[in-house]
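Why show two proteins at once? Because comparison is the fastest way to build intuition. When a single record is shown, students tend to memorize it. When two are placed side by side, the eye starts asking what differs. So, the first record is below.
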Amino acid sequence: MMQFGDLPSKGLSVDLVRPGLPAQATPWPEAIRLRIDVHNRWYLNDALTSGSALPNALKAALSRRAQWVVYIEADPDVPYGGPVAAMEIVRAAHARVILLTPQSGGNGGPKP
């Protein structure tokens, strides 16, 4: 049996929430949520934003937190480039990304 030791990892580190698992308790009543709807509109919590405005809006939202975690949810019909760009922006802000999927019970921001 051949062993290679620790291989370097590449790409984005992402946490997925599994259905049926209890959510971790947070001392803040509202989590930071980023939602991309079917029309490629971006919402940070309930405020409409854009990919270009997101870094500054995210910086302001994270500045009031001890734990920098952002939950990302995208409509299943959104091309994957949008959520990937969102994850890169969040990671560039040094925040942890948790992807919400329909099965994990994410309900995101306003619906169209």
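Second record. Ask yourself what differs from the first in the token line.
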Amino acid sequence: MDRQQHIEQATRSGFVAAKSSAGRSLASVLRVMKLPSPQTALIGAGLVLAAFAAVYVWRRGVFGAASDIGRAAINAVDGVVTGAQEQISETIGITPPSLTITDTDKCSEYAGQYGWLSASERCSAGALAGAALKGKTYYGNEGRR
């Protein structure tokens, strides 16, 4: 089989380079190829997804897969709630929960460096009360051993 016959056979089967040595352009090659319709592509993607899901359930077991799906759903809802809480905090001008200090020692150190008023905005209520009842305020690493 010579080179021209190989190119013609590849053209009929749909495997052709962008420009063949016979002088065919990409547009003429694409007219020869049969591309799937969007519905066929969606059905194929759904079948592949169903196959992956079946293998996943087979490997993890029904209860393991259900547990993973439930955990993913809870994490998605938690992410939405946390994101909303962060945005609301930012909008009204208070410290978002991700930046709130919850450790008593760190809150005490923050109060020593920036003052109790600033610490009352930045620390959680429990950490601020613990730091206030703790007594001595640290300004850094002094006094700790």
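One difference worth noting in the second protein: The chain has three domains: 3-32, 36-98, 100-134.
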